[in-house]
Amino acid sequence: MQLGLKRDEIRLVGYNPEWTKEFSRVRDHLLQNIQLNENWIQHIGSTAIKGMPAKPILDILVGVNDLNNADSSLFTGLKNCGFLRLKVERPGEIVLAKFTDQTYEVKTHYIHLTEYRSELWNNLIFFRDYLNSNETARQRYLEIKKEYLEKSSTGINEYTDYKEEFIKYIYSKRTSQN
Fold first, then answer.
1. Are 160 and 45 contacting, i.e. CB atoms less than 8 angstroms apart?
2. For position 122, what pLDDT does the model report?
């Protein structure tokens, strides 16, 4: 299994069941080094959707009680596990990444640090679970990803924006179920 993308590179690879094993390995490493609840570490993103081609980067959701008061020991533990905080600004989320080496050119894993059971947490989990249980939605999501890649193999922000309408549509299904 080969993980990693260069800065701003967009590339899909075929689904790999090893992604789940890699998530378990990273989760166990986090739990050994940081005081976290096991259920507050979740595999998300396309690598968590069975059969879905994905960018070869593992997305991990980590929940905390209060994002604004996350203590320095948490970030020290994450750094000891190889995760460095990125300068990405997103509401309700801190993003960290793991790289292949000290050049910091190729990212292999992301941690999305957010408040446990927040709106963002719930949406990310719902999206993963919905696509895992709905073949039609899974196929449409793959089509959207491929449509973007027909035009470009760079532009992570543009790629994310291109998928946003579909993602928000799936999120709306969660709120309509409540």
1. no
2. 97
